[in-house]
Queue: 4 jobs
Job 1
Amino acid sequence: MATRIDSHQHFWRPARGDYAWLRADVPALAPLVRDFMPQDLVPLLKAHDVVQTVLVQAADSEAETGFMLELATGHEAIGGVVGWVDLAKPDAAASLERMARHPKFKGVRPMLQDLPDDDWIARMPHRDAVQALVQLGLRFDALVKPRHLAPLLRFLKDWPQLPVVIDHAAKPPVGAHDGEAFAQWRNDIAAIAALPQVCCKFSGLWGEAPPSTHGRIDAAVSAVRPVWEHLVECFGPARLMWGSDWPVLTLAGDYAGWIAVSQAFITQLSAGEQTQVWRGTAQRFYDLQPA
């Protein structure tokens, strides 16, 4: 069994009150409106030989970052935390410096997919804030959809020293591989992958697939395969990292199911390449200390 690092998972406690997107009145999201905490995930990690995780923000507040760092302090399995800072604010650099004092703070993730301005990333981040990310050795998780890839490319070209990872492969139209939108995603991802500072997470894709694939491993494999093939061609195993996107994953399948879907592709690689995708890329990108 391969030892794994889950490069993308969440914990939340809705009563904290800052998860604006987590709405019980949206039927598709209602199953997620409950506590998801370490005691819920740890048994799954042990069952599948996942030795570490990267805990990623789910609220646009610095308070949630503090909440996650507290969890990371108390749980060895959390190897790193990706938090949130408003990079457009002049005092963002000071917030980053404060958070970076915690050894498990690894970077930030603006919730770009939820912002009304698709060009926000190319225009709004304060230069001092981005410079602080670089100087502090932090990383940038890009939570984007295909429409954000062109402005993200402009940002990336301005900051070649900043390590960036594309979350969930930018959420392509999984299962619609013959359409114009998928062709545009292919072109834009290839342009971004040409920049050596960029990695990509193989995560969150079952949730982007048609509902007819949910809970069906074979159907999910068929839907996701064209995405995987393009990602491997563009990034190579050394810049791809596996992640679960748990508990959002539970809307489409379960932890064991997503590992099975992923194994259908990753086991076609050489042994060394499999190690990169399952754990090596994440460990190197986030500078995770061995568990």
Job 2
Amino acid sequence: MTDSAIIPVSMTRFDADFQGFSDDLGASFARYGFAVVADHGLDEAVIGAALDDAKAFFALPDAVKRAYHQPGTGGARGYTPFGIEAAKDAKAVDLKEFWHAGRELPEEHPYRKYMRDNVWPSEVPTFHNHVYGMFQALDALGAKLLQAIARYLKLPDDFFADKVALGNSVLRLLHYPPVPADAPGVRAGAHEDINVITLLLGAEEAGLQLLDRDGQWLSIAPPPGALVVNIGDMLQRLTNHVLPSTTHRVVNPAPERRGFSRYSTPFFLHFEPEYEIRTLDSCVSADNPDRYPEGITAEDYLLQRLREIRLL
């Protein structure tokens, strides 16, 4: 295991040097499946308020939290208790609990058949405003990053705009409790993300690692004011692996940190449910033949993958 050599790309270049920003961001994704975006510009007060509310919720008694669990829904909204989710093909469950908040839609919107209503814990009165505020901020930032990815792929800058505007995206508030020395699993087993891109703000505790192409695990610890962004399987499929979805994990802490919880807040940006993921012609060549001749809707792909990780 080695420290990551990923060079941060500053968001300040988005306006000052969009082409250069896109080139460097895309090159990092092509090489690692991950990028570190510095100077993200998100309001630290919004982030801090949402994180404080998440910590307050996870500190509630187990019976109170479980009242917000909705079995059989894929964990799409509300609370998922400790010990349910597992990495695909893993024998042990992950050592975590989490909360999901998703997009809020107008009453009559046709996508409501795909997206459940959010639930909000009455025990933390500010939870809705703070957490949904964070959802909206990350949704907007994700849309900007997709403009740069489109430029890197030599697509129109707005290529992704109408495909994610009402995407089935979710903000996950994650709590990894203290880890006993004899823990049977790890905080998050080796996996790839299902979605388009994931935006992950820096966690207070270390542990995130990606599997490099040479089989080495690289530790990733974004500096303050930065976030980690990684490619998900949907975008890997769309780009025929030009942008790879890289295996990553969250390992258990060193003995001196076992008694500390770890919190993180990944934002899983998704396509709209009815968007058909079909390989981009520009990502097919003699050297890179089409791996996915059949298209699949984002909704069908999501359901298929949720079954694999035991959430459905």
Job 3
Amino acid sequence: MPLIFIPPFVQQINSKIAREAGVNLSVLRLDVMHPWVNGNKWFKLKYNLLEAKQKNFTRLLTFGGAYSNHIYATAAAGNLLGFHSIGVIRGEENLPLNPTLSFAVQQGMELVYLSRQMYRQRNTAGLDEYLRQRFGEVFIIPEGGNNLNGVRGCTEIISEAMPFDYICLACGTATTLAGIALSLHEGQKAIGFPVLKNGGFLGEEIENLLTNYLASGLPTPYNSPGDWELMCDRHFGGYAKVNQELLQFSREFSETHGVPLDYVYTAKMFYGVMDLLQQGFFAKGKSLLLVHTGGLQGNVGIEQRLQRFSKI
């Protein structure tokens, strides 16, 4: 399957909750771009892969958890673009492999497992040097594409043709929010919904990314970021944690509006937006664009995990 993309589109959501709040609600469907390399994952990978090609690297190395959308997308994109990829996975190997890691292996990705303690050193020069000694010349992409190349790609998600008052998105590393903040025009605001417990620390991460990006000389639509805010209390217990309320919301939203949601990211953000609408958080007449960041592949593994737990 070639790396050919379908242009994402904006889908209006005819929601009773939004109508009662007097707010226009739409979704940016990044999930439809490609079967394997979609959502914000492609935007974060794009300039990393271009740099790797320009510097004549043939091997990619990146990091992620066992259900990582980033691992899944990097394995697919690397294979389609002729790279050998190495995935450094947090934690111990569990066999049989879950659907995410099985797919990565099918795409030719070599999996390496690190203890959680060692994995926490993934952004240090010491671990990078250890990995280069072990694997030779590799182009290292941070977990989630969380670097300036990733931010650069994410500045291309929102265009001037999207004149919404609020841009809402889920946050893991906050790379996507940083890129979107740099592409907002006057009067727009980005609202990020961290999917991790105690996600307030992402505020400092975003500030650092914005400062470093603006100092780097890389292209940016504007010379200063737009307004942004984090909503840190819609994480449902932490990263990849779900409950029946979230599952039911996700399924009902998909059935009603024809927009499938992934449980780890978009379902939590959509739930949070609906909650804010019911609270009257947004003024009447405002327009919201919810960014669907893909990641639907992870639902299969989470549903399998929940089924196992329900049998215990």
Job 4
Amino acid sequence: MKAVIYNRYGPADVVKLVDVPRPVPKPGQIFVAVRASAVTTADSMIRQGMPRWGRLFLGLRRPRTTAMGTQFAGEVIEVGADVKGFRVGDRVFGETGMAFGAHAEFISINADEMVAHIPEGMSFEEAAPLCDGPLTDMNFLRNLADLKPGQHILINGAAGSLGSAAVQLAKSLGAEVTGVCSTRNVDFVRSLGADHIIDYIKEDFTRQREVYDVIFDTVGKSDFRSSKPALKRGGAYISPVLSFRLLGNMLWSDWFGSKKAKFSATGMMPVDQQKPLLRELLDRIAQGHLKMVIDKRFGLDQIVEAHAYVDTGHKRGNVILQVG
């Protein structure tokens, strides 16, 4: 089968499309023909070995696991022994986590891991990124921010894969939403339901008079210290992009002041903690509160171009690999 690998850290062209043996499903696993996969900012950072401390987990000098990709959607074509809840022909989506391998024609995954049925009416392409941006957003909005109706949240990077979903989900939770984006994305972010827009090319949200209950920096471009004046007393600065600076801010804010800096690695959470968030996410999709945004589509043989596009930092919503 065709699969994407990388043997060293570096720019987009270190990724390769190669022939590898098809995986054999074990008892308790389902075998999926992948129809779509998402190329995420996290994939780009993993490929580059950034931040460098992340190589403690990925491999110091070169990647220990050469397979790439974590987000997938496809069709079950074989069911292993002892599997319940799935059958051949089911349309499913999920994530492979640190096992990677989602940028391939086929994958095997444990049926009790992060895999679920695709919601009715949703395409493979729309379902593939659900366990990336939207699930991360649910964790941050629910568990870290404890976002309540009527609260005011600022979402930095509101046009990206996390941001575009976060705007919609925060609105569905009853919050007042301010989206921060570039000039070209102002109308797009407004169409997602944002109540207010800040064009970061023209304005700096940290220097305005408005204050927020929550600042959700989906892209890690701001920092807690400079954002504190824009937080209400008891407010939270949350970001999925961990850095030494954010880690230090978290430790400091745990002891001092009412404003807190918070981080969570959603994909590293135990499955039994992620699945309730996923169920709520699917409920909100069924209620029409979230529409997935697809920016560009690439074929599996265009994986280098897909990574190069993600590297620009200007994707709007999700970048999808069309597989099979």
